[in-house]
Amino acid sequence: MPGTTTWKIDPAHSSVEFAVKHMMFTTVRGRFKSFSGTITVDEDAPENSSAEVEIDAASIDTGVEDRDEHLRSEDFLDVERYPTITFRSKRVEGALDEEGSRFRVVGDLTIRDTTMEVTLDAIFEGVGKDPWGGQRAGFAATTEIDRRDWGLRWNQTLETGGILVGHNVRIELDVQAVKQEGEQEEAA
Fold it and tell me: Where is 67: in which H helix or E strand?
């Protein structure tokens, strides 16, 4: 299709991270180490652009193996039954082809076979040529979800009142994508 380009997310130069309150007063951060995705850009009509991302749920990493194992269990992500988390955009709002422009990506986030619409607040970080002759683009995006909407309801009540694990999860993405042209392979 004329005016349309395809970009592959470069996981070596991208991150999918999250943050959630622990005991209501500290923040625990984590990330997913394994993911892939494609961004299709309609340069003539950016609102027709799209993104698809697949995340290996078992690749969750908070830096504490016991906690990670609990997050992989049936209490949370249940990675044995639901190995993949996906995001598929439905529309892009306000995208411009200029560095620093802010826009929104609305799409379906599927966790544990439950699909809900989320809105990513995004920023276009720029585009440039890499040392291997490839074209790269950068994006950052954030959103906040209530994990209970996806069936992630496990919790414990604290003696002092409140809960052990916060309901709201802040998701932060930093994405570098490589433009796909003919036989061009992803650069190292």
Answer: helix 65-72
**Structure token digits, residue 105:** 């990506």
Tokens linked to 145: 């979800």
Domain membership of residue 73 as a residue range: 4-180
- The answer to whether residue 87 sits within a structural domain is yes
Tell whether 160 is covered by a domain: yes
Long-range Cβ contact pairs of 145-150 (< 8 A, separation 24 or more):
145/109, 145/116, 145/118, 145/169, 145/171, 147/20, 149/114, 149/116, 150/109, 150/111, 150/112, 150/114, 150/116
The mean pLDDT value for 3-15 works out to: 94
Query: What pLDDT, on the 0 to 100 scale, is given for residue 151?
Result: 75
Average pLDDT over residues 88-95: 92
pLDDT score at 186: 41
Token pair of 87 as six digits: 């995001």
Q: Is residue 106 part of a domain?
A: yes
CATH code, domain with 81: 2.40.128.110
Residue 65 lies in a domain: yes
- What pTM value is reported for the model? 0.85
Q: Over the chain, what is the mean pLDDT?
A: 85
Structural domain count of the chain? 1
